[in-house]
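BUG: 3D viewer hangs when loading the predicted structure for this chain

Environment: internal workstation, default settings.
Expected: structure renders.
Actual: progress bar stalls at 90%.

Input used:
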Amino acid sequence: MDLWVRILMAANVLSYHLSNGRLGSTMAGQTVLLLNTVGRKSGKSYTTPINYFRDGDNYLLVASNWGKDHHPAWFLNLMHQPSTVIQVKDQKLRIQARQAADEEYGRLWQYVTGKNQYYVEYQKQTTRRIPIVVLTPQA
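Structure tokens produced before the viewer hung:
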């Protein structure tokens, strides 16, 4: 990942934490949550700001990785350990993650691309199918 992107993401995470979600929860018109993952190889904890969409009670993440030919690290880590915590503004939620599949994927792909056209362009840049991750809050 580019150094500039890393710096921007770290600043976003810091401002999100320090302001309890009042700052950093929107970027470029997109809503942003903080996703906590554990490295599948390193065992280190990571916090990643990611834009999200809502589908009922669920949160949706798109693992586009800007159209690169490999999945983002956060996605691989989350699929390895799908139970985690997200922060949405000032609320921390325990979630269970899974990939959307079949008809659900088609419906959600139409929904997210209707909200953000960049995903259509990213899909054209790669041969991999861009995953949509469904985060379901747990009691």
